[in-house]
């Protein structure tokens, strides 16, 4: 609370004077005389002292000015003529200049020349000096005086704003703080002039059951009782801030309190019982709308509701949602209903607000035990014609691969859920290979064609058959069943070489490199790999030329045993009508000489047409051999030409090169000595034969050559034809 200062005390403080005694002139002279008598060399001086009254100003003093403030005295005036000097803030320095002065510089009277604002400058630190009037020298230490400005209550407390707007929830508890008021007084701190008290001047409207109160010291506003949005959505408070000065000063501010609606009204259904009729077998939205009423403000959490089916929805057929615009409940069927299973459903639906419900009892908030209302919904399911149901919907039957016509695979079984005496007809809906038929009445499935596990319609040994069951209702309804036919495998397929292993090309430079042979079988285990590989020894010295390497289930490494020398070049007869590739035996790539040409023509001139697959497993050729790729070759053939390049070229160019090479070879042919392979013939012309190109550049099949290629060789071709007809390779 505010405290007051007595006028007598203020008067006593203003008259209080601090007086210091000094040695009198007489005493000083006596001391000086005694000292002179005793020792003329010693002089004794008395300590100089300042004497000053208390300097204190009252702020905003109205004058008249200049006004006496106080007086000071220095005892040096007894020995000499002195003057008093003043300096510092308030005299010749900021914050104020010319505020204080000393009269005539002779006496020590101090004056102030205008009012002082304590809130601007609470004190002044002033320096006083005494100087010899004749010489102007300072004869004593400076006196420092702190002139304080006495505060008066000249400022009223001020709020930061004149009006405030705040919001408070309707369910705000009584006695709890609502907001905080704060005012500032610029007078001296910790004095009655700056001490502020708060008062609630008025409240509009004034209600018995609800109101506000303010703490006088802290300014904290609290609620008294309960708020009711529907009764008073807004309050206006007038708050006063008052200081404890003499006289006290005050100011006011207006506070507008806006009440936010909370949930103090429980929602209610517009009716206690609802009825709805729906057809079975359908999931549908919005089959029923349930209306509710709520007394709280629309579109708020206190008004919005949420629904819940508390009973009757144990199987999850129903769901209820809220329309955000109308606040109605929307009943949905999310799982089709069945009339034959249950013809009527009774649901209990509860509704409550999103925000918790509250009530006020004797000025205190209460949370009611029951915060929701409920209603019952009767759902009647009407009967419709349901499609037949298969038992089971999908089943598996097994049969061996290759089962012939007339084999009974299984039976579809469907019933009508309507439980009438109607008839059900079966028919095939999916049989991609047309292997089966179905009995219209019994649903028995019988094969009409042999089944084949290797059919493209079979996936992982499973053949899918789909049937429909159609009832005789109005309108007719159709059900679907699936039979999965599992075909167990039998050993009905022989293993074969893969396409990539049926046609291999081996270059001479491949040496003894192994060949990879792969096989496959369309059957399943245990009728597939691992396979047993064996060389066909009917082709001459196959076993001398090749041997079987490592066997890896369906893989085999075919190894070349040796290279046959020139002395053992003649090979077995190879049928000319097998295969589409050409094998040419050839000598070293070098300048042609008669001996090499005759040996070449005598031993290996015929163009050998053999099957590449047979060549991989049967051919036992002697000598140096190279497979040459035909112009139209199997796309899966795999040339094996390690470290050797087999050039390719257009067919016409290759045919021309072959004709030129054959002509050069015929030019240098002689009768070999000691070689009884065929009758001796000599073919030669005058002149030196040109150097022969390598036969490895000829990459084509004999079937790719023009039929008149030998005719284009001229008369040199006749001996070639004769040699060919008499050789061991004629067909």
Strand order of the largest sheet: 1-2-4-7-6
Low-confidence stretches: 3-44, 563-650, 668-678, 683-699
Number of helices: 8
Count all strands and give the number: 45
Residue share in helices? 10-25%
Largest sheet: 5 strands, antiparallel
From the spread of the alpha carbons, the general shape counts as elongated
Could you explain the architecture of this structure?
- Helix content is 10%, strand content 34%.
- It has eight helices and 45 strands.
- A five-stranded antiparallel beta sheet has the order 1-2-4-7-6, with no helix packed on it.
- β35 and β36 form a beta hairpin.
- The longest helix has 17 residues.
Could you give a quick summary of the protein structure above?
By secondary structure, this protein is mainly beta. It is built from eight helices and 45 strands.
List keywords for this structure.
731 residues; 34% strand; 5-stranded antiparallel sheet; disordered N terminus; elongated
